[in-house]
């Protein structure tokens, strides 16, 4: 699920490599607070916050996608 959420083309994590992702990509509800000001990700947490994600990685809204398909399929004069 992480691989899909990160939307990196042709990226496959290797078994023995330590990958990290910034905490800003997780919701506050994805964390478990531990006494002593420690936070840990809950099991099953998936990164879901990408405020500056490049536009080409973001899905186009359905209405925008339909309009684009209509324009592509429209015969030219």
Automatic annotation (TrEMBL):
UniProt keywords, alphabetically: Cell cycle, Coiled coil, DNA-binding, Metal-binding, Nucleus, Transcription, Transcription regulation, Zinc, Zinc-finger
Pfam families in UniProt: THAP
InterPro entries, sorted: THAP1/10, THAP_Znf
SMART domains: THAP
Localisation: Nucleus, Nucleoplasm
Segments forming domain THAP-type: 1-50
PROSITE patterns assigned: ZF_THAP
GO CC list: nucleoplasm
GO MF term list: sequence-specific DNA binding; zinc ion binding
Recorded family membership: Belongs to the THAP1 family.
PANTHER family: THAP DOMAIN-CONTAINING, THAP DOMAIN-CONTAINING PROTEIN 1
Identification of the protein by name: THAP-type domain-containing protein
Organism expressing this protein natively: Caligus rogercresseyi
């Amino acid at each position: 699920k992480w691989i899909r959420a990160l939307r990196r083309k042709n990226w496959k994590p290797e078994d023995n490599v330590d990958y990290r992702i910034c905490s800003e990509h997780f919701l506050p509800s994805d964390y478990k607070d531990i006494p002593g000001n420690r936070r840990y990700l809950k099991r099953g947490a998936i990164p879901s916050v990408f405020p500056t994600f490049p536009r080409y990685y973001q899905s186009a809204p359905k209405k925008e996608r339909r309009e684009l398909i209509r324009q592509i399929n429209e015969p030219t004069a």
